[in-house]
Amino acid sequence: MENYTYTSTDFILLGLFPPSRTGLFLFILIILIFLMALFGNLSMILLIFLDTRLHTPMYFLLSQLSLIDLNYISTIVPKMASNFVFGNKSISLIGCGIQSFFFLTLGGAEALLLVSMAYDRYVAICFPLHYPIRMSKKVCVLMITGSWVMGSINSCAHTVYALRIPYCRSRSINHFFCDVPAMLTLACMDTWVYEYTVFVSTILFLVLPFVGIACSYGRVLLAICHMHSTEGRKKAYSTCSTHLTVVTFYYVPFAYTYLRPRSLRSPTEDKVLAVFYTILTPMLNPIIYSLRNKEVMGALRRVLGSWVCRKKY
Question: How many CB atoms lie within 10 A of CB 148?
Answer without folding.
Answer: 18
